[in-house]
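Hey team,

Filing this mostly as a record. A colleague (T.K.) asked me to run one chain through the structure pipeline before their review meeting, and I want the input and output archived in the tracker in case anyone asks later how it was produced. No errors, nothing strange. Just documentation.

Input sequence:
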Amino acid sequence: MIHFARIGTLLMFSMFAFAQETSVSFKTTEVKPGIYMLQGEGGFTGGNLGLLTGDDGVVLIDDSMQPYSKLMLEAIAKVTGDPIDFVINTHVHGDHVGGNSTLGAAGTTIVAHHNIRKRLIEDGITGANGQEKAPKDALPTLTFSEEVSFHLNGHEAYVFHVAKAHTDGDAVIHFRDADVIHTGDILFNSLFPFIDLDTGGTVEGYLAAQERILSLCTAQTVIMPGHGPVADRAALQAAHDMLKDARRRVMKLVDEGKTQEEIVALNPLADYHDEWNWGFITTERMTETLIRSLRK
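Output structure:
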């Protein structure tokens, strides 16, 4: 059985090793006044970051990988000289919570779904040597079950939990008045998604989470995905339609009684390969994830 979380650990740090030999930076895009997305360039730095700034305080969404904490803080300092008051974790993976210990030690309040704190305590945090014990400073100090809202800088940042989606602790952040949404890893823009079945994720929950976000979107909504460039409702709809159809194609073969090896050999997702395949979640791995999820 493929354990994607462990594969993800190896992939992240092999990418980090490669990035050490290249010029890595964070590209900062102001998507709406006072709201930014930070995305790694020149190497894999982790998931996309969201940033809310203003006189009332600074809120960061996710915090990259631990080796890039200094670079991340330097990029944020170019936007605001104020300290980071809150960081919201969208889920437990090390490429999104790797900077928790650095921020926590500096006095930032870490906010997350309670399953993230539970998993960090019980399973640890992704490090260069795999799963390592999470230091106290990396643990969320403010947790929620279903939702929490931030009212800062003239914005409402509505944070809500989507169950059994990418993991069992996913959060989506909706800046309601600004019409901006940070999806965490509920959207890999123009990439096959990583659905972590070993950490409580499910294909059904992932599709339901995307449907909930779609219900909040207008044609003008700006979407900050977990990975990939800034997106819009059409991009999220395309990702949702692809996954729904991919699930249907694989389900047909599972219902016919075919083995995993037979299904992979038939390559039911071939039509999506050129556009959606990438280094971590290849067409074959996406097929295997769908098979595992359906057989559960």
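Quick notes for T.K.: The two ends are 13 Å apart (CA to CA). Residues 4-202+221-231 form a domain with the Metallo-beta-lactamase; Chain A fold (CATH 3.60.15.10).
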